[in-house]
Amino acid sequence: MKAPIAKTSKGLLASRAGRWVFAGLLFFAFILLILGRVNHPAIDKMRAVASDFSSPILGFLSRPVDRMDAAFEWAGSLTSLVAENTRLRAENERLLQWQSAALALERENLRLRALLNAPELASKRVATPRVVGVSGGPFVRSVMINAGRVNGVARDQVVVDELGLVGRVFAAGRVAARVLLVTDLNSRVPVRLQRTGDPAIARGRNDASLELVFLPPGAEPRLNDAVVTTGEGGIFPPDILLGHVDRVDGQGVGVRPIALLDRLEFVQVIEPVSSLLKIRPEEQGGNAPAVNTDPQAKDAEPKGPEAVPQSGPRSGAL
Amino acid sequence: MSERSSLVITLLKGLLPFLLALFLTMMMQLPIGDGTGNVPVPHLTLMLVYYWSIHRPELLSVPAVAAIGLFQDLLWGGPPGLNMIVLLVARVILSNQQALFVRQSFGVGWAGFVPVVFLAMGLTWLIVCLYYGMLVSMLPLVGHGLVTLAAYPLLGWLFGRFDRFMKPD
């Protein structure tokens, strides 16, 4: 097969104008790299515009892809229906036992909080958008969601799925936003080992797992230890399950995220912890923080974004 | 057909490679397979720039290539300007080497794509290392490059059909 015949042309750099155009565009690209490195807001705005432009098209294009994925999954599940049914029955029985234990613990926790007047940080759900795009780049782990500023989504809000932490919003457009996944090279999440309470930083590595760094000397992480957020740093609310330790060796400690990062469909966007500590306008007179200090006062909260159910991603304790 | 409508059609045809590139950039964002990008996605825009730089360079100007790279960078969420530089360099180098590939078989065209992919991946790795100030693993890039090379015959064939459709009879 012969390729289409084309006219040959002189190199683009043969003319002076061509050289200037090329040099100017390269210079512009380097400026963009520098602005990106220093997290200049102009880059976020440009990203937001690009996301807004492509979000409706991606939303339209991703529907048949989702349906095809669902069809393949359904066809695959047909072959293991009986085994799956038996497994689910056993799991259901086990979970019912856990549920009664959890309810008893929750009641006890609420009573103790009331006795101690300890504040509870109730995460507020901002939106439940759909994932319409993923990053195709080898060095980026991010997704695009079809909710933006009009839905209350803003930079540094936290994104979770039904199991655990997904990432945080790093650019919010009008109708779409980009989410940096916890596995991205730029992602840093303050966490602790739930069993021992040892704090650490979970660092993304651009692959399927994260790495725990800055563990205190003497910490003894074990395989399958649950890793949850600490709430430090002002972004991630405390006690969101990030994942479980899947590697402890001379090279470090690895964490496999619990969220379904490989097949995200719908996610929840929740307020960052810093906004939960801000003073509400109606409470400015009394200097009361916007945290729920009274477990019985949940019903009295103003209408708006719903609180994330405690049985959702914050279930690492079980 | 009136003169005005034929002018509009000619203009639209001139814009088609650019619009196709924007479409392919968005296609690279679709959540196909592993959503986190652990499964490499072919670099569709690099293929497009390669094909049109050789066969119809007059339809893909340097500013258009820069705009495609920038759009891709903004959508990917990675270092802004990265793909802009990679595609611009590929476009300029190919404009100087075009005579080597013209009137050659498809196989030669495919073979010629190998050094372009190596160059693009190497440049990407270098910029990413400088940007983050650390040595990043080359493994994701190797997968990305191999998938890009493997996908070229199909995409090259499609580009050829597209190109014939655009040419005036």
From TrEMBL, chain A:
Residues 131-271 form the Rod shape-determining protein MreC beta-barrel core domain. Keywords: Cell shape, Membrane, Transmembrane, Transmembrane helix. The chain crosses the membrane at residues 20-38. It comes from the Bacteria. The keyword Transmembrane applies. Pfam families: MreC. Residues 280-318 are annotated as: Disordered. The keyword Ubl conjugation does not apply. InterPro entries: Cell/Rod_1, Cell/Rod_MreC_2, MreC, MreC_beta-barrel_core. Belongs to the MreC family. This is Cell shape-determining protein MreC. It comes from Iodidimonas muriae. The lineage of its organism: Bacteria, Pseudomonadati, Pseudomonadota, Alphaproteobacteria, Iodidimonadales.
From TrEMBL, chain B:
InterPro entries: Cell_shape_determining_MreD. Keywords: Cell membrane, Cell shape, Membrane, Transmembrane, Transmembrane helix. Belongs to the MreD family. It is a multi-pass membrane protein. This is Rod shape-determining protein MreD. The keyword Transmembrane helix applies. It is found in: Cell membrane. It comes from the Bacteria. The chain crosses the membrane at residues 6-25, 74-94, 106-133, 139-159.
